[in-house]
Write a structure and sequence with these properties.
Shape: elongated
Strand content: 5-15%
Low-confidence stretches: none
Strand order of the largest sheet: 3-5-4
Structural class: mainly alpha
Number of strands: 5
Length: 191
Amino acid sequence: MKNLIRPAITLFILISLVTGLLYPLAVTGIAQIAFPEQAAGSLLKRGDEMIGSILIGQNFSEPTFFWSRPSATSPMPYNAANSGGSNLGPTNPALIKSVSERIQKLRASHPGKEDKIPTDLVTTSASGLDPHISPAAAYYQVERVAAARGIDVATVQSLVDRSIETPQWGIWGDSRVNVLRLNLALEELQK
């Protein structure tokens, strides 16, 4: 039995060092060299001020900004420490109630707008942190944002047009708009 314990402990220590220390350090080093922006969290700065990450949604609620997709994280929206969806099924009364409330809020914020509300403006994503909305969701909000900022609708629509990100390599994913980048571009437009 003693002949088995020493090799087992040695192998355990060796595997722990390789998988718990050497491998993570190697992967982190390669990521820092090959993808430095992404490895650092894809953070956006304005001067010395950190304003967010393009990978995590933010809670915009003022009428002067484009609104992100709703977040299901708690205790606050877009809480990266608590990523996760609501896991409520389509017939769950709580989900139906929350979607209905979001629809009412959107209708109240966009009076007279009879267009179909894009689904991503009233439903949460699986992570609860989605930083993107569909182009349709961005276009739905153009008139409200333009009116709240006192900007021509065509100017804001053009900004949305330029903010649309196409599917990766033209095949993976859908066209999308990063809300943080769009709102930053909107602020730059008014400077």
